[in-house]
Specification:
Helix content: 40-55%
Number of helices: 19
CATH superfamily of the domain at 329-537: P-loop containing nucleotide triphosphate hydrolases
CATH class of the domain at 329-537: Alpha Beta
CATH architecture of the domain at 329-537: 3-Layer(aba) Sandwich
CATH topology of the domain at 329-537: Rossmann fold
Radius of gyration: 42 Å
Strand order of the largest sheet: 5-6-7-3-8-9
Distance between the termini: 81 Å
Strand content: 15-25%
Largest sheet: 6 strands, mixed
Length: 644
């Protein structure tokens, strides 16, 4: 057990925000903490961290217990980075204990060179202990870990000597998460970790967290992320925490089943109570039945009334329809550069865009931050000029555009006035009905657009789209700012829509439910994948595995080639050594032969000078011939010896 909460309460202004919260976190668990904005998720995290005091029950119950030696790491919105540090220096802060151990080991090693043998015993124990600690915590691979985490978090191309003060807010958030991952706490608490992450970084983070050796507690609105990572979902609703086994999709099924069961139990008890109350009223005044009525009253008094179940609140109703069918080819983009800015600020994001959208397709456009996804949507509509190539639309196309900046709305209009001005043929009653369908009702319908929340403005845009009846929907981040219930309604509406959709979104859950084609933008252009986000991710993962296998094969081939070359070098070396040995042996042999010849020549010259030999002409001639032959042979041997 890493963490245990028992009977936690928290009151604000006398009202309970958290009521009787109990939660146990075991090692290797991946828990997703969800709930509506303001339900108390961040408050609960602060209670776990000890930053916020919790309230006890009237009888003094309530506790937060952390397992012995459990280290808790918390990623919050304020990154906590040192602005004056470089990226490398900041990442090394995660290894402070190891760096201190390494520094002390160096000091001890220096001492060892100057101490006498009998003094070494005084520090050998400390040295052995520190060495074991350093090795057990993988101290020799600090730089390798830093490179791996930085690459995964999207800093692979960023120089590690770059100062943190020069990074953007999103980059600082990512870097803070990278440092926390390097610290490897026993319990990793992440508050909205998917903000500022592109799809590839998200995919890497999902894989890393699934293999994390500790436990993870995550607050996130990213339903796809929760599905991929979590083994348990904990929901805070009406101040209470309920736990569901599995990821987000399993939670939806279990939650629906739980609510249905609670409703049945509540209704059954309600009927039973009504039945008892009716019996008591009818029989308490009659002498013959008063005793039975009193018994029923005691039974009724002992009833613990079931808490009224929290059923789903009123949901938006979004139905997107159109009147005329467009041609088969909706839009074709050929050799069109994607450019933003003008003059000195001009920047070419994509040199040549090729795109073809057909009738009825639900295409999702994805890509890294800053690649120009929104610019592509504006480009194909002619909202920004194109410098080359061609953009051609089919016939009978009627576009309904959701701009994430809600540019279709006039801030000076009221909500109802916005609809009446854009669609003058509808009555006030029809306008009120449409606004009510997207949950803008009562006095909110008469609020100026300028004071509406981001979610309310998005819902007002959906009301416009319902009335526009476009056969091509162009949507730029439509789920930003809207509540979870409206997201689910919008997903259903888009999934059921029979027309064409061109969607830009970071919401992978939305893409997964509504898209049948994924278009990935990169600096070299657009690449198309058939299917939803899961299908796209499967292709990318297969390519990654194939690329890794190819890299490993190339590495193995290089190793084999190096080994072969090494063997050849070794083989040539053996031959050379054998030749050298043979040469040395020949030199020795020549030296011996030369010595023998010199001795033979000296003996012959001595014999020739003998008068007895000189008197014998045939013998003298033979000796002279032998001497000439010996001298000639000596010259040959000397010449061969010099050549060796």
């Amino acid at each position: 057990m890493l963490l245990s909460l028992e009977h936690i309460y928290k009151y604000y202004n006398g009202e309970p925000l958290l009521r009787d919260i109990s939660l146990t976190v075991e090692n290797n668990e991946r828990i997703g903490l969800i709930g509506r904005n303001g339900c108390g998720k961040t408050t609960l995290l602060n209670i776990i961290n000890g930053r916020t005091e919790f309230d006890r029950t009237p009888d003094g119950l309530g506790s937060v217990s952390v397992g012995g030696n459990t280290v808790i790491g918390y990623l919050e919105q304020n990154s906590g980075l040192e602005s004056s540090n470089t990226i490398q220096e900041e990442m090394l802060r995660a290894f402070d204990p190891l760096l201190k151990a390494k520094e002390r080991l160096s000091e001890l090693e220096s001492l060892m060179t100057s101490l006498a043998p009998d003094q070494l015993e005084m520090i050998s124990g400390e040295y052995s202990q520190l060495s074991a600690y350093f090795e057990a915590h993988d101290g020799y691979n600090m730089d390798v870990k830093i490179r791996m985490i930085l690459n995964g978090m999207g800093f692979g191309d960023v120089p590690t000597d770059r100062q943190i003060s020069t990074l953007s807010g999103g980059e600082k958030t990512r870097l803070a998460l990278a440092r926390l991952l390097l610290e490897q706490p026993d319990l990793l608490i992440l508050d909205e970790p998917t903000n500022h992450l592109d799809f590839r970084t998200l995919t890497w983070l999902e894989g890393y967290l699934k293999g994390y050796r500790g436990a993870v507690l995550i607050v996130s609105h990213d339903r796809y992320f929760l599905d991929k990572v979590c083994t348990r979902i904990c929901e805070i609703e009406n101040g209470r925490l309920t736990s569901y086994k599995g990821g987000y999709s399993e939670y939806l099924v279990l939650k629906k089943s739980s609510v249905e069961r609670q409703v049945k139990e509540y209704e059954a008890q309600k009927r039973e109570i009504e039945k008892l109350e009716e019996y008591i009223v009818r029989n308490k005044t009659r002498a013959s039945t008063a005793k039975m009525a009193k018994s029923r009253q005691h039974m009724l008094d002992r009833f613990e009334p079931a808490e009224k179940p929290i059923t789903y609140e009123k949901q938006a109703k979004i139905r997107l329809e159109y009147d005329i069918e467009p041609t088969k080819d909706i839009v074709k983009v050929k050799d069109c550069p994607v450019v933003v800015g003008e003059g000195a600020k001009r920047k070419e994001l994509i040199p040549s865009l090729e795109l073809h959208i057909r009738r009825g397709e639900h295409a999702a456009i994805i890509g890294p931050n800053g690649i120009g996804k929104t610019s592509v949507l504006k480009l194909i509509q002619g909202l920004i000029p194109h410098e080359g190539g061609s953009i051609s639309w089919g016939g009978n196309v009627k576009i309904s555009y959701f701009d994430q900046e809600h540019s279709m709305l006039d801030p000076r209009d009221t909500a109802i006035g916005s609809l009446s001005r854009k669609f003058p043929r509808i009555s006030d009653q029809q306008a009120r009905s449409i606004l009510g369908a997207v949950l803008i009702s009562g006095e909110d319908a008469f609020k100026p657009v300028s004071v509406l929340s981001g979610g309310e403005r998005a819902k007002l845009c959906f009301a416009h789209m319902i009335l526009q009846r476009g056969n091509v929907l162009i949507l730029d981040e439509p789920t930003n700012h809207i509540d979870l219930g409206t997201k689910e309604v919008l997903e259903e509406a888009l999934a059921e829509y029979k027309g064409t959709i061109i969607l830009v979104s970071h919401d992978r859950y939305l893409i997964n439910k509504t898209a049948d084609r994924v278009i990935e933008l990169s600096p070299v252009g657009a690449r198309c994948f058939e299917g939803n986000y899961d299908a796209y991710a499967a292709v990318i993962e297969a390519e990654r595995i194939e690329s890794e296998q190819l890299r490993q094969e190339q590495k193995l081939a290089a190793q084999l080639a190096e080994r072969s070359e090494s063997k050849q070098r070794q083989y040539r070396s053996k031959q050379q050594r054998a030749a050298e040995a043979k040469r040395r042996a020949r030199i020795k042999e020549l030296e011996d032969e030369i010595m023998e010849l010199e001795e033979r020549i000296a003996a012959l010259e001595s014999e020739i000078s003998d008068p007895a030999v000189a008197a014998d002409f045939p013998l003298m001639s033979a000796k002279c011939a032998e001497l000439d032959e010996a001298k000639q042979l000596l010259d040959e041997k000397m010449e061969e010896w010099a050549g060796e």
